[in-house]
C-alpha cells in the first residue's frame, strides 16, 4: 500500500505507521554501502515522506525496508543498529507527553495510551509486580515480513526511552524476545547491557518496580498540558472514528478530505459511515473539526508558515475561515494563539498528528 492507493479497507488502516519511523534509516543504509533509494522504492514508499511525522506509510513497508536492508547488507542486527540512530522523538507529541510526565510510570502509561496515534499496528503494555515490572511490545499485524528485525528495533528504542526517563546508565534486569536469536549473543549484550532471553512468552523490558515512582527531571508542566490536550483527553480506540481520523491525515493534503471522499476510501456509503460514527458516539464533522484544531495547534506552535499556508494545510479555502475557527477553539485569532504557544516555551512542539 502506498499513498497512491484509492481504496483502503479497515484492515489496511491497521497497517499504518508515521513516516517518521524511517528517520535516519536511509543514512544508515548508505553508511553500510547500500542504496537507500532503491530499497525504499522497492517497498513502495514515496521517498518524499521519509521522516515526516505528518504522513503515513504501511507498517509492512517499513518492515520491508529494514528487513531487506539487513539481508542485502548482510547485517543481521540491522534493526538494533537502526534503534541506535533513532529516538523517542519520532513519536512526536507522545514524546513531549512522556518527557514531561511527573513520574516514570505516568510517562509509560502516556506512551501506552496514545501509541496507536503513531501506529495502530503496534501496542505496548505495562505489567507491574512487587519487585519487577515488565514493559511489553507487540506487533498486531499478522502476516509480517522481517518481524524479528522490527521487534529488535522497537526494544532498542524502548531501552533508550527508559534511559531518557531515568538516567543514561539505566540497565534493565533483562530483555526477552519471542523470536529465536538472529545475531551473535554479544551483539545483544552490547546493546542492552543485561541478560537477554529468546523464545520467550513476550517481547519485553523487565526492570525494578521501584523505578516507576521515580520523578522525571526538567519537567515542563505547560508542555505536558499542551501535549495532553493535543493528543486528546479521551482515549481513542481503534474503531471507525480512529480510521476516519487517520484517513483525514492522508486525504486532506490531496484535497479529498470530505465525507464522500473518506467514505469512498473506506469502501462504504457516506450514509453508512455517518450511521457507524453516530453509533460510536462521534460524527464526521466533529472528527474533522478536531483534526483541524490539532493540526492548527501544532503548526502555529512549531512552524513559521504563513496563516494562509496554515489555512491551506487544514483544508480551508481562505484565511478568514481559519481566523473564525481559532476564535471558536481558543477565543483568540491565529497570531495571538501563535504568540501564546511560543511564549509558553512550546517552540519545540513536534509536528502534529
Can you characterise this structure?
The chain is an alpha+beta fold. It folds into two domains: 10-213, H-NOX domain (Alpha-Beta Complex); 221-343, Homeodomain-like (Arc Repressor Mutant, subunit A, Orthogonal Bundle), CATH 1.10.10. It has 17 helices and seven strands. It has helices spanning 10-13, 25-31, 36-42, 59-73, 78-85, 93-99, 104-114, 147-165, 185-192, 221-231, 240-251, 259-265, 270-279, 284-302, 307-313, 319-330, 334-343, and strands at residues 16-18, 56-58, 122-127, 132-139, 174-176, 195-197, 204-208. The strands form two sheets. The chain has a five-stranded mixed β-sheet with strand order 3-4-7-5-6. Strands 1-2 form a two-stranded antiparallel sheet. Helix 3 packs across helix 4 (59-73), helix 6 (93-99) packs antiparallel against helix 10 (221-231) and helix 11 packs across helix 14. 42% of the residues are buried. The model is unreliable at 1-12, 233-238 and 345-353 (pLDDT under 50).
